[in-house]
Design a protein that fits this description.
The complex is a heterodimer. In chain A, strand 3 and strand 4 (133-137) form a beta hairpin. By secondary structure, chain A is an alpha/beta fold. Chain A is 24% helix and 35% strand. By secondary structure, chain B is of the alpha/beta class. In chain B, the strands form three sheets. In chain B, strands 6-9-10-3-11-12 form a six-stranded mixed β-sheet, with helices on both faces. Chain B has a four-stranded antiparallel β-sheet with strand order 2-1-4-5, covered by helices on one side. The chains are: A alpha/beta, B alpha/beta. Chains A and B meet through helix 9 and helix 10 of A and helix 2, strand 6, strand 7 and helix 3 of B.
């Protein structure tokens, strides 16, 4: 068999998480009006200020237009055809995980995320989000002893409204952009993390997002606050069933790292990518941003293998002096996938430092764009940025694009940008095969080598997971 | 039975015939040198034996230990004991030499029904093999051929050969681009790795490698055919007279 046919077979491998959980749901009919926003807020028994905040966002959103600058193409989205709220029917305030519908527990088991604490990876607490709501959070008590709050967003609104009110929208204002405004109006659930002053969070925190219902958007909101000198490492994972329709996922993540705090945020995104003809798949339009105080550090690591379209730029506002921002990214497109992703590093404080390492892999007919902005403001004396942006092409039908924006307004700063493009060629694969590795193994070794600098930033268990995922999304993509 | 038996091998690339009927028998314990001018098909022969997909075999047969080599995928040939030291070894950024070699070593062991070695045991094995090419352990943490000098790349090929212990080693222009010290190290390595049950094919343009690795047979390839075979003295004659007198033979042979 020739390489090409062998690779063709491998590329058509099925998406593993494409099944649907059969469970009764309360789903709001499609459509978006002020009433929808009021309904969501009322269902979640939200305080008046939050309803007002949502309504303000909704009105702003109505005046805004969807951005057209990303290097992605898709038919117009009908925002009235989307359902904005969907929750498992048995939903009631959950006292403990024992009360969660067994079907939901099964769902997560099947995804490899067991929610019962005995079975969990030691040292990782999980919040599981199913469509619009959180179905349970593990290790809550253990964390509470340290003063760490890790719960669903809805719960945080009820139990810690003062914290939510103080920080919600403080990094990503409701009017920041089209999708952030939409999210601010209709967000349903998400995770909330609060690490008190000087506390090093004793375990990895993670949120697992699952879209299940059809024609439903997922609009989650994550807010992480690390007080002075606190430390937290957080990971999110995502999957969705295979459906012929495109589904919208418009999330907002806000990170607040106060002076001397560290937040490490890792994402392994594996939303359904659509089939080989580009039918179906998730539109992943996400706003992620962090604000770093003096000597604080915010580090984004992302491994993006799924979604039909990805539009996201996890960013850091380096406000405090000596703060550090990092962005490590692996973005893979295969089939008909499109990604426009990168970061923004906004240097405001003195001696602020940022590092960007972006690895884009394009296969099949995928189109991968890196878009990154490094902005050094006038008072950022001694600011430094290092950007490394590498693209790898597999086959002849894919594309890699780079859009760096560098804006330096301070002459004492130092900005470096390096870029490379390489191609996995027949010769590289042949070399590995000649040494006894089959094609599948060869691609996996080559691609993992390419991504090494990013993978080593991931927590150990997830690095292994990410490598496997990368293997699955890419094997056999040489055409 | 011959270790390698090539009969009337024809091969082409992009519909251009390169090999036009090569027959060659190699027995265990032998060293064969394939020489010839540029474009004669020497490297093509090496690539075809290793199973490079860019070359199409259009006729003839090749067996290794009696098994049909042409029917095997490149990795299956590696499992069967074919090793090609590349003329231009490929770089694999981000993958350490140690990791890559262990993957290769274990794949070959697995294919032969042997247990895989764990990283610790493999490091012990490596330590021994590094001596063959006079290298220290630091080379194992560098990415495969990445940023290596030309000489280091060739040495790395010999190291891989030492670890994988092939039955049939094909060295494609391993001497090209080597300074005299590197040439000695590479040649010493190859000589140490000779075993009574394995054979070596040296593909080379120049005689100088053969001062270090003495061949049992020398074959001259021209125009996709073996135009002359002889002992090691043939190489010396080529050194003096060049290839033209033989290329002429090839042309008249074609006319006849």
């Amino acid at each position: 068999m020739s390489n090409d046919t062998e690779l063709e077979t491998l590329v058509n491998r099925e998406y593993q998480h494409g099944w649907v959980t059969d469970i009764e749901m309360d789903t709001l009919p499609p459509g978006l009006t002020e009433e929808t926003v009021r309904f969501i807020s009322a269902t979640k028994k939200e305080p008046e200020w939050l309803l007002d905040w949502r309504l303000k966002a909704f009105r702003r959103w109505q005046e805004m237009v969807e951005p057209t600058w990303p290097n992605v193409h898709y038919p117009p989205i009908d925002y009235q055809a989307i359902a904005y709220y969907s929750a498992p029917k048995t939903q009631k305030p959950l006292g403990s995980l024992d009360e969660v519908d067994p079907k939901l527990l099964e769902t997560y088991e099947k995804l490899g995320i067991p929610l019962s604490e005995q079975k969990l990876l030691a040292g990782v607490a999980v919040d599981a989000i199913f469509d619009s709501v959180s179905v349970g959070t593990t290790f809550k008590e253990t964390l509470r002893k340290e003063g760490v709050i890790f719960c669903s967003f809805g719960e945080a609104v009820q139990e810690h409204p003062e914290l939510v009110q103080k920080y919600l929208g403080s990094v990503v204002p409701a009017s920041d952009n089209y999708f952030a405004a939409l999210n601010s109006a209709v967000f349903s659930d998400g995770s909330f993390v609060y690490i008190p002053k000087g506390v090093r969070c004793p375990m990895e925190l993670s949120t697992y997002f699952r879209i299940n219902a059809a024609n439903t958007g997922q609009f989650e909101r994550t807010l992480i606050v690390a007080e002075e000198g606190a430390y937290v490492s957080y990971l999110e994972g995502c999957t969705a069933p295979k459906r012929d329709e495109n589904q919208l996922h418009a999330a907002v993540v806000e990170l607040v790292a106060l002076d001397d705090a560290t937040i490490k945020y890792s994402t392994v995104q594996n939303w359904y990518a659509g089939d080989e003809h580009g039918v179906g798949g998730i539109y992943n339009f996400v706003t992620k941003r962090g604000k770093a105080g003096a000597r604080a550090k915010i580090s984004w690591t992302q491994v993006e293998t799924g979604s039909a379209i990805t539009w996201k730029y996890p960013s850091v506002i380096l406000q405090g002096d000596d703060s550090i921002g990092e962005f490590y990214s692996v973005a893979v497109v295969n089939g008909m996938q499109q990604a426009d992703t990168g970061t923004k590093m906004i240097h405001i404080g003195r001696n602020t430092k940022s590092t960007i390492v972006s690895k884009g892999i394009s296969a099949g007919k995928g189109q991968n764009s890196y878009r990154g902005q490094v902005k050094i403001l006038p008072k950022a004396h001694g600011a430094r940025n290092y950007t490394q942006c590498d693209s790898m092409l597999i086959g002849n039908a894919c594309g890699a694009h780079t859009f760096p924006y560098i804006d330096v307004q301070n002459s004492t700063s130092d900005v470096e940008h390096e870029a490379s493009t390489s191609k996995i060629g027949e010769d590289q694969i042949f070399y590995c095969k000649q040494r006894g590795l089959n094609t599948e193994h060869a691609i996996s070794v080559i691609v993992n080598g390419f991504c090494k600098e990013v993978f080593r930033e991931l927590p150990m268990e997830f690095a292994v997971e990410a490598q496997k995922l990368l293997g699955i999304s890419l094997e056999g993509s040489v055409g | 039975m011959a270790l390698l038996d090539i009969q009337d091998l024809h091969a082409s690339v992009d519909d251009t015939a390169i090999l036009k009927g090569i027959s060659l028998t190699v027995n265990a314990g032998e060293v064969h040198a394939i020489m010839g001018p540029n474009g004669s098909g020497k490297s093509t022969l090496a690539q075809v034996l290793a199973g490079h997909p860019a070359y199409e075999v259009t006729g003839g047969s090749v067996t290794l230990d009696g098994a049909d080599l042409l029917d095997m995928e490149a990795e299956e040939r590696a499992w069967a004991g074919v090793f090609l030291a590349f003329q231009y070894p490929v770089e694999i950024p981000g993958v350490t030499n140690a990791y890559f070699l262990r993957q290769a070593y274990n794949e070959i062991r697995k294919a032969r029904g042997l247990d895989e070695l764990d990283p610790m045991d493999f490091l012990d094995l490596l330590e021994e093999k590094l001596k063959v090419v006079e290298w220290g352990p630091e080379i194992m943490e560098r990415a495969v051929n990445f940023g290596f000098s030309g000489g280091e790349k060739k040495r790395n090929e010999i190291l891989q050969m030492a670890v994988l212990e092939p039955k049939l080693a094909i060295l494609d222009e391993t001497d090209s681009g080597l300074d005299i010290d590197a040439l000695r190290i590479v040649a010493d390595g190859v000589n140490q790795l000779k075993r009574p049950d394995s054979a070596t094919i040296l593909v080379t343009h120049y005689q100088r490698l053969l001062d270090y690795i003495v061949p049992d047979y020398v074959h001259v390839l021209a125009g996709g055919k073996i135009v002359k075979s002889g002992g090691k003295e043939l190489a010396l004659e080529l050194e003096k007279r060049g290839y033209e007198w033989l290329t002429g033979v090839a042309e008249s042979a074609a006319l006849a």
